[in-house]
Each structure stands twice: as C-alpha cells, then as structure tokens.
Write a structure and sequence with these properties.
The protein is of the alpha/beta class and 216 residues long. It contains 11 helices and 8 strands. It is globular. It starts with a strand and ends with a helix.
Length: 216
C-alpha cells in the first residue's frame, strides 16, 4: 500500500518525506486555506513547492463544478508539474470531466466518494484514483472499511485499474484496516502515520537494552 500525506503544510510534508516512506500528497481546499494560501498564483506556487519536496503524485483540487470550467482549471493545474493529479468532485459534471481528462492524458483523483455506486462510475470514467472518505463515513455510524472492501471486490471482479485511495483517515488503526481491506493507497495526517510507530513494549524494551548496554 502506498502512503500519501493529507495536508498542505510544507513542514509536515518534509517530515513525512524524510522518513523515506512517502509516496505522494493529497490536498483539498480546506487544507490549503488552513495554510493561508490565497489567490491563483499563490496556490500554483504552493503546489510547485510541494512537488519539489516529494517525488510522487500530488492531488490538486479544482474549485469549479461545471464541465467546461473544471476542464479549463484542471488543464492549468496539470500544467504546474508532471506529478500533479487533478482532484475532481464526484458530481455529474465531475464524472464527465474525468472522462475528458482520461481521454486527454491527464490523471485524476475522484474525491468525495461515499458509496460503491459512485466508485463504479469513477472507475468507468477512468479516474486514476478514487477517494472514499473513511472517517466521515464512520462519523455517521457506518463502517467506512466496508466500503473499501466492497470496492476492492468489485474493482477486482471487473478488472478496473483505478487505484483505491483511502481518505479521511483519523488514526493509525484506520491505516492498518485500509491495508487489510485492499486499499492501494492511504492518505493520512502525519499524526496517524507516526501513530504506527507506537508500542509501549518497544519503549520498555529499548530502555532496558540501553540500561544493560552500560554493562557491556
Ligand atoms: C482526501 O483527499 C481529503 O483531503 C481528506 O482525506 C478529507 O479528510 P477529512 O474528512 O479529515 O477532512
């Protein structure tokens, strides 16, 4: 499973990249706004900076909701750097635009996916990635991992090439479950990635080894 970091924060992207396990980055308008990025030029420059840190796919989201403007915006985003993947919302014009991008060699990430029906449509349109929002599904009392499992089964049976990108990850257990359920990619906040490191027996064991090493 590939690891993406889900943030627009350059320091966190650098920290995750320095671990040597980072395969890419996802952003969204909320995450970009959180970093105080405003205006077309600043947005493009920020994506450029992210692409200079990480050698992997970087999702940049369109802000339009009609076919023509999504295509115009997506072409500009894709022109920023070869690693940019155009993130398009799961709406009627979004699907139409994903098909257009697919036919014209521009890679896409279909975002805001909450059902298998939506996941089938995204795959049919040729999306490179599809992003089911696990945490937000869990927040509503359903099990987000069931969706990943169902998508994995359907994509395998149908031979769809779209990669399942588990998104809206809230903790380390989500990452483990996403891997178990067959996600191709997991996009995570830095804290959830670092959470995978934690085990009290590791800390206790290391403290004992370092103590005993004094007698070596
Ligand atoms: C996916 O690409 C989204 O940016 C993200 O995972 C949404 O997560 P949230 O539900 O924590 O906002």
């Amino acid at each position: 499973m590939k690891f993406f970091i889900d943030t627009g924060n350059l320091a966190q992207i650098k920290e995750a990249n320095d671990l040597g396990i980072l395969d890419g980055v996802t952003t969204n308008p909320t995450l970009m706004a959180k970093e105080g990025i405003k205006g077309t030029e600043a947005i493009a420059n920020h994506y450029k900076s992210i692409c200079e840190i990480v050698n992997g796919d970087v999702s940049a989201e369109v802000l339009s909701t009609d076919f023509t403007t999504i295509v115009e915006e997506g072409k500009k985003l894709a022109g920023i750097h070869p690693n940019i993947v155009v993130k398009v919302p799961m709406i009627k014009d979004g699907i139409k635009a994903i098909k257009w991008f697919t036919d014209n060699g521009i890679r896409t990430n279909c975002t805001l996916v909450f059902s298998v029906g939506q996941a089938i449509l995204a795959a049919k349109a040729g999306a490179s990635y599809v992003s089911p929002f696990i945490g937000r599904i869990d927040d509503c009392g359903w099990d987000g991992m069931d969706l990943i499992g169902q998508m994995r089964h359907i994509y395998d049976v149908q031979g769809y090439k779209t990669e399942i990108l588990a998104a809206s990850i809230r903790n380390a257990l989500h990452i483990i479950k996403a891997a178990e359920s067959g996600a191709n990619v997991c996009t995570c906040p830095l804290d959830s990635i670092l959470g995978l490191l934690k085990h009290p027996l590791t800390d206790i064991g290391l403290a004992k080894f370092l103590e005993d090493a004094k007698n070596m």
